[in-house]
C-alpha cells in the first residue's frame, strides 16, 4: 500500500460555532477545538499541507459576514496560521465548490484530504462527498469535528445521534473515520487508514440488527 499524500483541511473553525444558533453541541466544543489544533500541529511537524477554510456570506446575512466577530477564526487556530497555509473562502457547503482548492491540491500531488472542523452535518459531509467525485480519498477525524441539534418539519435529532450516524455513514463509503490520536500515528508512520465499504457495512448492519 502506498503512502498517502495528505493535506489537512480545516473547515470553518469560526466564532459562529462557539456562540449563537450554530454553537457546536457534540463532541464538546472545547474537546473538538483542542483536537483540531493538535492536528494542525501534527501536520506542521510532518510537512503536511494545511488548508484553512472560512465560510463567507453576503453582507446582509445574519451570520458569516466577513469582518464581523463571528466570521473570525477561533483565536486558538488563528495563532497557528502562517504563510505556509492555504487560505480559502467559500460560499457553499463543500470546500471545493467555487474555489481553486482541487487544483491547488493536485499541483502538490495530494491524493488524500483529512477533514477537521465544522460542521459534521453540513460542510464536512459535503466536502467528503465531493472529494470522491474529484478523485481524492478522504479521512475525517471524529473527535475534531462537531454537530448541532436539529429540528424541522421532517423531525428532530440530537447532535450526538446525528454525529454518530454520520460517522457510520461516512465510514461506509466516503471517508476513513478515525480519531485525532490515531491520525497522528498514521501520519508519523506514513500509513493509510482503513475505510469500510457499503456492502460490508450493509452485511454487518443486518447482522447487528438481527441480534437486537
From TrEMBL:
Which UniProt keywords are given for this protein, alphabetically ordered?
Answer: Hydrolase, Plasmid
Reading the lineage from the top rank, the first entry is Bacteria
Keyword check for Hydrolase, yes or no. yes
Gene Ontology terms for molecular function = hydrolase activity
Domain Isochorismatase-like span(s) in chain numbering: 7-181
List the Pfam families: Isochorismatase
User: Under what name is this protein listed?
Assistant: Isochorismatase-like domain-containing protein
Q: Which organism is it from?
A: Rhodococcus jostii (strain RHA1)
Amino acid at each position: 500500500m502506498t503512502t498517502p499524500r495528505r493535506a489537512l483541511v480545516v473547515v470553518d473553525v469560526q466564532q459562529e460555532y462557539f456562540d449563537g444558533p450554530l454553537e457546536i453541541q457534540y463532541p464538546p466544543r472545547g474537546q473538538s477545538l483542542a483536537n483540531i489544533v493538535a492536528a494542525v500541529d501534527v501536520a506542521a511537524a510532518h510537512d503536511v499541507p494545511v488548508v484553512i477554510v472560512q465560510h463567507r456570506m453576503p453582507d446582509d446575512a445574519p451570520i458569516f459576514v466577513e469582518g464581523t466577530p463571528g466570521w473570525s477564526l477561533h483565536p486558538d487556530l488563528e495563532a497557528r496560521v502562517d504563510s505556509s497555509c492555504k487560505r480559502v473562502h467559500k460560499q457553499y457547503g463543500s470546500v471545493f465548490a467555487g474555489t481553486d482548492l482541487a487544483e491547488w491540491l493536485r499541483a502538490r500531488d495530494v491524493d488524500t484530504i483529512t477533514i477537521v472542523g465544522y460542521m459534521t452535518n453540513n460542510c464536512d459531509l459535503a466536502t467528503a462527498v465531493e472529494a470522491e467525485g474529484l478523485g481524492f480519498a478522504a479521512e475525517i477525524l471524529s473527535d475534531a469535528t462537531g454537530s448541532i441539534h436539529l429540528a424541522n418539519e421532517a423531525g428532530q435529532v440530537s447532535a450526538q445521534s446525528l454525529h454518530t450516524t454520520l460517522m457510520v455513514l461516512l465510514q461506509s463509503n466516503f471517508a476513513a473515520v478515525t480519531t485525532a490520536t490515531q491520525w497522528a500515528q498514521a501520519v508519523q508512520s506514513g500509513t493509510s487508514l482503513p475505510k469500510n465499504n457499503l456492502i460490508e457495512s450493509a452485511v454487518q448492519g443486518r447482522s447487528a440488527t438481527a441480534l437486537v
